[in-house]
Amino acid sequence: MEGLSFAHLAAGLGAGIVALGAGFGIGKIASSAMDAIGRQPEAAGDVRGTMIIAAALIEGVALFGEVICVLLAIK
Amino acid sequence: MKGALIISLSILALFSQIVLADPPGESSLSVSPIDTSHAAAAQEGHGSGDNIGDVIMHHISDSHEIELPFIGAVHLPRIELYGIDFSITKHVVMMMLAATLLVVVLSFAARRRHPNEVPTGFAAAIETLVEFIRNEIAIPNMGEALGIRFVPYLCTVFFFILTCNLLGLVPFAATATGNVSVTAALASLTFLSTQAAGIKAHGLGGYLKHFTGGVHPAMWIIMIPVEFLGLFTKPFALCIRLYANMTAGHVVILSLISLIFIFGQGGANPVAGYGVAPLSIGFSLFVNLLEIFVAFLQAYIFTLLSALFIGFAAHSGHEEEGHGAHH
Predict the structure, then answer these.
(1) CATH number at residue A11
(2) Domain limits at A59?
(3) Cα Rg for chain A, rounded, in angstroms?
(4) Cross-chain Cβ contact B240/A63 below 8 Å
C-alpha cells in the first residue's frame, strides 16, 4: 500500500473513533440530564440548557477530529 | 433595533467577503476541472465511481458560477482589488440574498400601524423568536443590562445563520454557512464582541489581568499562553461547528443520492440503479428533514454560545465559576 491509501484508511478509522467518543460523551450527558429531569421535573428548562451547552462543547472537540479526518481524506 | 440589524448585516456581508477571499489562481484551478467533469456526468448520466467525490465537492464548495434552473450556469464576475479577491461568488450571492430577505421580511414583520397594536400572524411568530433570544439566551447568560444591549447582535446572528442554513436546503441554492470563511467571519464578530465586552467591563488592566488566571506570578509563564490560546479556541470551535454541521448534512444527502449512480454503474446496470433508488431517496428525505432541524439547532447553538462567551468575558473575570463550564 502506498502512503495515500494509509491516509484514507486513517481518515476512515479516525472518523469512526471520533464519532464513537462523541456519541459516548453526549450519551452520558443525555442520560444524566434525563435522571436530573426525572428527579426534579420543575428544573427541566435549566437542565436542558446546560445539557445543550455541554453537548455543544463535546461536539466542538469531535468536529475538530472530524475536520482533521476530512483533511486526511481529501489530500 | 431595525437600524442595528441593517448595520450589522452590512458589516457582516463586507467582512465575510474579505475573509472569503482566496487566491484567485488557486480557485480557478480547482473549480474549472471539477465543473466540466460534473457537467459531463450530469448530462450524459455516466458518473463513474471516480468522479462522484468530485461532484460532491463541487456541490458543497464555493465557485465563480451559479447554476439556475432553465438558465444553466451563470458566470459571476471576478473582482480583484489591491490584490485581494473580492469576487461575488456563489456563497456571497447566497449571503446577499439572505441579508436582503432578512431586511425585507423582518422590516415587514416589525412595522406597526398603531403604537399599541398587538402583532398577529407572521409578526407574532417573529416576535416569539426575538423574545426567546432575549429572555432565554441573552438575559440568563449575560445579565439584564448587558443582555438587553446585545439582543440586536444576537438576533442578527441568529436570523442570518438560520436564513443561510435554510436557503441551503432549497434546490439550486448553496449553503453559505457551509463555507468555512463565512463561519470564520461570523465567529470573528463574536470574538471581537467578547473582547470588547471584557475590556469594557473590567477595563484594560482588568482584561489583561485575566490572562494571569489569578495565580502566583511564578506560574504566569504557563498561565498566560494557556489563557491566550483559550481566547481563540472558543470562536474557532464556533466556526468549525457551524461549518462542519452544515457541510456534513449535505455530504450525507449527496452520498445517498450518489449510491444510485454507484449501483447503476452510470447506466450500465439500470436494474441495480432503480432497485436502490427508493431506498436512497427515502433516506435522503429523512436526512433532509433532519437538516431542517439542524438548521434551527445550529443557529440556536451559535447564538447561545456567543451569548455565553460574551457573558463570561464580561462577568466572571478569573473566578472558578467562569472556567468550570468551558474547560
Answers:
(1) 1.20.20.10
(2) 3-73
(3) 17
(4) yes
